[in-house]
Amino acid sequence: MIDLNSYLILSASVFVLGVIGVVTRRNAIIVFMSIELMLNSVNLTLVAFSSFLGDATGQILVFFVMTIAAAEAAVGLAIVIALFRNKQTVNIDEINILKW
Amino acid sequence: MVNIEVVLFVVLAVLFVGSGIMVITRRSPVLAVLYLILNFFALAGLYLTLQAQFIAVIQIIVYAGAIMVLFLFVIMLLNLKDEEKLIEKITARKVLAVGLSAAVMFEILYIIWISTPGIERDVAKAEELGRVEAIGKALFSDFLFPFEVTSVVLIVAIVGAVILAKKKLD
Amino acid sequence: MFETAIIAGAKIVLTLITLLTLVVLTVYTERRVSAFVQDRVGPNRVGPKGLLQAVADVVKLLMKEDIVPKNANKPIHDLAPMISIGVAMSTFAVIPIGSTMTLFGRQIDMMIADVNIGILYILALTSMGVYGITLAGWSSNNKYSLLGGLRSSAQLISYELSMGVSIIGVLLISGSLELDEIVGKQAATLWGGIPAWNVFLQPVAFVTFVVAAFAETNRLPFDLPEAEPELVGGYHTEYSGLKFGLFMLSEYVNMIVASAIIVTLFLGGYAFPWGEQFGLSGNSLAVAEVLTFCVKTGLVMFFIIMIRWTLPRFRYDQLMRLGWKVMLPIALANLVVTASILALMNWA
Question: Which residue segment(s) compose the domain that B10 sits in?
Fold first, then answer.
């Protein structure tokens, strides 16, 4: 029988992997994927709590997170395409027009 | 006799973390997408070990089947081949960032360590909860309003994506 | 525990062998039917009536050299056909081909995996099928392949929507995600003695589903991903030998699986209507059910083949317009109407 802590530790480590990806990578699309990684690790936490506490709310929340993630991916990738059209790159270090 | 449940959990956990590491270290975005899909499958497996079968299938349909196809589509559309060579230097800032992330990790682990009391899991009840019927009932009664709001969010996202990705606004 | 594993293994092996044999037969049928439509003779040299032609083709494909383009991404180039064939074959796992059979004193369900979310499983797997084609197109490093791959992902995403929405209509009628129960609901008869098949209860959903199924399996009139005159061979331009064979195989397996799903969801599945009149029970009833299922699936497959040799190919913009501006609104309207009627019936 696997206890709740194993699931929590697992999801924490993948969450931190996502954080590392976001802060170190420069390819906008991979940064995006790291965000998805973080979202998913949080989902694992929610489902684990839902299953251990016997309450469906956690799984409903995961459902909503997935909906928002889909919306976020569509808008985010549209932004990447728009950026690429303007600057011919997805390197986030070169996207610095707003930086002064 | 090794417990099959533990073996399953360990295999899925290794896949989950391993593919996560691969995602953030790959140079080619296409490979990163493939490892992320593997990651999602491992996660769906972990959901199944928690008896959340509806969430597991939705995970595959929505994440692996729709969102990642979108990623792949964009990568192929932009033809990011040259971007693969985008140099990723190891700078002092990055080392610091990884160090800070590790600190966050230890913080989370510490909180988990001191706080969670051992909760016993009622497998039969979890099984009942993970079914489509239970989730559907909760979704259309207690969570009806947020559920309707997500449809608005989705419409806004569709309009936003079309406006942003359009060549010229006319 | 051990016993169930053996039974499941036996079922899987049996299904795989049957599917592979069926593919060979389907290829032969397709070529003979196309020859008939075009007033030719078709394959008639290898074996009696040319029956062994497909077998000879398989042997030929196995013997051919496997060429990988120099600039291709080798691991993904290898992976793509495996994804295609794996997805195509594993979809069959949840389709029931009969109720139960008693063998060696055991009740055996006539499906590999009896999951209570069978339809969601099918939807999940069909959404995975995109990757095989898309990755094949991308990894070949060839512009025709890439175009084929891009077209296919756009096409599959577009038609998945109307497919999913038309399935929801069926779900509303039968009230279950389990394929076995959906078949069970269709075994009853409506007024006037016609069977309560979903094709009569949900005719609009049936049409949209069949059209979407054509698009999902890349069959003509929707075979844009591999349109020969414009894209050379489409996503599998750079494939040869065994890997090309796997793509062809998965295409035909997809066709078989799509027909089986159409039969299960809309045409009454394995249900054998006159079981009691003929005094069938137990194993003889099970055999009758399997035969019913096979005959129905065969007829649907014949229909799909005939369509291929009857209709011309769509243009790409027409395909997209049909998918988004015609099919999806129709499917949605059908869903709303079905839901309202059911709500009214429950209310009254």
Answer: 4-87
Residues 30-69 of A with CB under 8 A from B: 30, 32-34, 36-37, 40, 43-44, 47-48, 50-57, 59-60, 62-64, 66-69
Residue B28 corresponds to which tokens in the numbers above? 């080619």
Domain at A17, CATH number: 1.10.287.3510
Find the residue in A nearest to B136 (Cα). A60
Is the residue at A94 inside a domain?
Answer: no
Whether B39 shows a pLDDT value over 90: the answer reads yes
| Cβ <8 Å between A29 and B21 | no
Q: Any idea which residue has 């990755």 for tokens? A: C135
Inspect the interface and report whether the beta carbons of B109 and A9 lie closer than 8 Å: yes
Does residue B121 have a pLDDT over 80?
Answer: no
Q: Which of B87, B113, B140 is the last residue of a domain?
A: B87
Q: Which two tokens stand for residue B169?
A: 């606004």
Is the alpha carbon torsion for C112, C117, C119, C124 positive or negative? Answer: negative
Range of the domain at C27: 2-347
pLDDT tens digits, one per residue of C48-102:
877 888 888 888 888 888 888 887 788 888 888 898 889 888 888 888 887 777 7
Give me chain C's average pLDDT, please.
Answer: 83
Judged against a pLDDT cut of 60, whether residue B85 lies above it is answered with no
Total structural domains in chain C? Answer: 1
Shared domain for B11 and B77, answered yes or no, is: yes
CB nearest C117 (choices: B30, B53, B72): B53
Whole-structure pTM value: 0.87
Identify the DSSP state of A91: B
With touching defined as 3+ CB pairs under 8 A, do chains A and C touch? no
What would the mean pLDDT of C236-248 be, rounded to a whole number?
82
Which residues on chain A are in Cβ contact (under 8 Å) with B54?
59
Q: Are C117 and B132 in contact (CB < 8 Å)?
A: yes
Q: Which of B9, B26, B126 sits opposite A2 (nearest CB)?
A: B9
- What's the whole-number mean pLDDT along residues A15-38? 88
- Nearest partner of C35 among C20, C46, C50, C15, judged by Cα: C50
Torsion of CA C283, C121, C217, C212, to 10 degrees: 100
* A91–B86 C-beta distance less than 8 A: yes
Q: Specify if B75 maps to a domain.
A: yes
Number of domains present in the structure of chain A: 1
Whole-angstrom distance, CA of residue C154 vs CA of residue A85: 20
- Supply the CATH number for residue B48's domain: 1.20.120.1200
